[in-house]
Amino acid sequence: MSVKVWNMVYIGEGTTVGDGTMIGSLSHIDEQVVIGKSCRIQGMVYISAKCKIGDRVFMGPGSTLLNDKYPPKMKSLEPAVIEDRVVIGGNVTLLPGVTIGEEAKIGAGSVVTQNIPSGKIYFGNPAREYKDMTKWNHEK
Fold first, then answer.
1. H or E stretch including 58?
2. What's the confidence (pLDDT) of residue 22?
3. How far is CA 11 from the centre of its chain?
4. pLDDT of residue 93
5. What local confidence, expressed as pLDDT, does residue 37 receive?
6. Which of 33, 27, 30, 37 has its CA nearest to residue 7?
7. Total domains in the fold of the chain
8. Residues 64/57/67/34 CA torsion (nearest 10 deg)
């Protein structure tokens, strides 16, 4: 396997990208970012410095991960963290310091202002819980 990077992508110094990951066109991945294996990062995604993304994460087009609560001071960066097997819809914004738990799903256009536990579905502005994936899977 290998990493596939589309047109006009910026990847900052010290960033690591796991095997089998695809990064879409016009994305900007800042310095010292960690991206896991087999991720799908769609076009026009912005990932701030030092953010961490687990394995098998899907990020919809136009998503943004922020790391600075009080720009432009940049004195206390709080990178966002996405754990394994998370699905993030298009145009989602994660505020600084937010952690998204394993297998969570975030609806398109959401603004995530707080940590999201594993296995939950959240959406809206601000993002709020919609369903617990473990219960939802049993309803099918």
1. strand 58-59
2. 98
3. 15
4. 98
5. 98
6. 27
7. 1
8. -130
pLDDT of residue 79: 94
Residues of the chain by 3-state class (helix, strand, coil), percent to 5: 5, 35, 60
Which tokens belong to 2? 């290998």
If the chain, 140 residues long, is cut into consecutive pieces of 10 residues, what is the mean pLDDT of each piece?
93 97 98 98 97 98 93 81 98 97 97 96 95 63
Which CATH number goes with the domain that contains 57?
A: 2.160.10.10
CA-closest candidate to residue 32, choices 55, 52, 10: 52
Dig out the tokens for 4 from the structure: 């596939």
Check residue 72 and give its pLDDT. Answer: 77
Other C-beta atoms within 10 Å of 29: how many? Answer: 23
The predicted structure's pLDDT at residue 131: 79
Per the structure, the complete domain to which residue 119 belongs is given by 4-139
In this prediction the pTM is 0.92
Residue type, 56: R
Angular region, 139: left φ>0, alpha ψ -120 to 50, beta rest: alpha
d(CA 42, CA 39): 10
Query: Tokens for 91?
Result: 């145009």
Q: Using alpha carbons, list the distances in angstroms from residue 127 to 53, 67, 99, 114.
A: 19, 18, 13, 8
